[in-house]
Amino acid sequence: xxxxxxxxxxxxxxxxxxxxxxxxxxxxxxxxxxxxxxxxxxxxxxxxxxxxxxxxxxxxxxxxxxxxxxxxxxxxxxxxxxxxxxxxxxxxxxxxxxxxxxxxxxxxxxxxxxxxxxxxxxxxxxxxxxxxxxxxxxxxxxxxxxxxxxxxxxxxxxxxxxxxxxxxxxxxxxxxxxxxxxxxxxxxxxxxx
Length: 193
Fold this sequence. Notes:
By secondary structure, the protein is of the alpha+beta class. It has helices spanning 5-12, 56-61, 67-75, 94-100, 106-122, 129-138, 144-150, 155-167, 182-192; strands at 17-23, 33-36, 39-49, 81-91, 171-173, 178-180. The longest helix is centred in the middle third of the chain and has 17 residues, at 106-122.
């Protein structure tokens, strides 16, 4: 579920935010946690609602002039059911602490090495993890399409692979491109030792 920046800013300030979505099938439920630009956001509640019952107050909180304007915006998403969703800030993205942890003891190093080996083994295009980490190390901030082309790959699948490295705390996304995290540098240092 994509959230507008202004809504994320309100959540970061501790405000419980309300948003509306129209879906044929909901893609979140109460208790879902999502990583966003501000950290982790939690879906507090999700209620099926008749659009005619959208309160004016919720429309104004959502930066609409009126509930009618909000309903018109929802109509732009076609058929489906309308949901009122309450969101709350749930804390910092745990990957931030992970990527700054560059003290790799033997068990952590082996865990990461094993995870990378598994990713390489499952990959339809062969081993890629260390080569991509080294390319990001050598070219921080390089555009994802350019890095993907360097490996003879399409951009979107390449970005999906880099996200897997990010989940392990090894890379960080920049406004453009990526860079290795301290943890990623520490891993490559151990692999080179």
